[in-house]
Design brief:
Helix content is 33%, strand content 20%. By secondary structure, it is of the alpha/beta class. A hairpin with a 3-residue loop joins strand 9 and strand 10. Helix 1 packs across helix 9.
């Protein structure tokens, strides 16, 4: 019997629905359950053919468990080794190389010194930075957000130079990105599962959180095809099995705003019934597909084009 496990935190509607959906399909030799961990022994199997990870970004113990499981042959969704290395600033840099439009973005050193460092630790860093060049490149208004993600936590809109320095002073040891504001006519949040299944959803990030999917943008077939291509290109290079990409359309051009969401919101009350049904059904089918293809003791992870081409010493872009 091959087991599909879902590793999750406080969310309930998606994990429970996914387990029920997989089991309702009655696929011979496959069953699903919430992951159960009693102990983690080095180099020993987790007992799962597939694990869908929804929580390890917040629990380092789980990340270590998943890496050990992957080494023993579990197909972890998403690859915990890549997820540990990935962050939003790198993704923006990568996008510029694969012809995906992104907002102008710079990375900023933390406002306060990290623990166990001193001024001497930063002898290679010019101070003050070339603030004039940075502000001229980005423009105002702009957004400032943590370079490694964190949902909507510690995200600031800054209106001018004084406002920037006031708000940057609140960020402590966080490393932040400063990013051009894209004034958009339409906005979409796009699920991508298995690097091949795409769900493009109207989304309004300016609404309160519970109303963000209450939007009714009507993209043409041409725009849908363009957005689908961008979503697939991003996920092929990153190697994510389960991700969302947020696209803001300015003058008809889709800009990738946020595309490092390997445990994206999938709660029924957030995404709405139709989107929820799609993500549960598609995730269940993909998890079964991964379980059927899983080979005990082999590397069953998904690796993106960026890593594969680097390993093979191919031209990256």
């Amino acid at each position: 019997m091959k087991k599909i496990g879902i590793l999750h935190g406080k969310e309930r509607s998606f994990p429970e629905a996914l387990v029920t959906r997989v089991n309702s399909k009655n696929v011979d030799g496959i069953m699903a359950e919430p992951v159960h961990i009693e102990k983690v022994m080095q180099g020993e199997s987790s007992g799962y053919a597939v694990i869908i990870d929804r929580i390890s970004q917040d629990v380092p113990f789980y990340r270590a468990f998943l890496k050990n499981a992957a080494l023993c042959g579990t197909a972890v969704i998403n690859n915990p080794f890549w997820w540990s290395a990935d962050e939003k600033f790198f993704n923006n840099c990568l996008a510029t190389k694969i012809n995906v439009p992104v907002p102008k973005t710079v990375i900023l050193p933390s406002r306060e010194l990290p623990i166990d460092t001193s001024n001497e630790s930063f002898s290679n860093l010019s101070y003050p930075l070339d603030w004039g060049g940075i502000f001229q490149y980005i423009g105002f208004p702009a957004y400032m957000k943590p370079f490694a993600g964190g949902g909507w936590k510690s995200v600031y809109k800054v209106s001018d130079i004084d406002d920037f320095f006031d708000k940057h002073g609140e960020t402590g040891e966080l490393v932040m990105m400063l990013q051009e504001e894209i004034i958009f006519e339409e906005y979409y949040r796009c699920y991508c599962i298995g690097g091949k299944y795409v769900r493009i959803m109207s989304y309004e990030p300016r609404n309160p959180h519970h109303l963000r999917y209450v939007a009714d943008f009507q993209p043409s077939e041409e725009k849908l095809a363009l957005m689908t291509d961008i979503v697939l290109r991003i996920n092929h290079y990153l190697g994510y099995d389960f991700n969302t990409v947020e696209l803001a359309l300015r003058d008809g051009v889709p800009y990738a705003i946020d595309f490092c969401n390997p445990a994206p919101d999938a709660e029924r009350t957030s995404v709405g019934e139709e989107n929820f049904e799609w993500v549960v059904e598609t995730s269940a089918n993909y998890a079964i597909e991964k379980a059927q293809a899983q080979v005990e003791g082999a590397d069953n992870l998904t690796w993106g084009e960026y890593i594969k081409r680097s390993a093979n010493k191919e031209k990256l872009f």
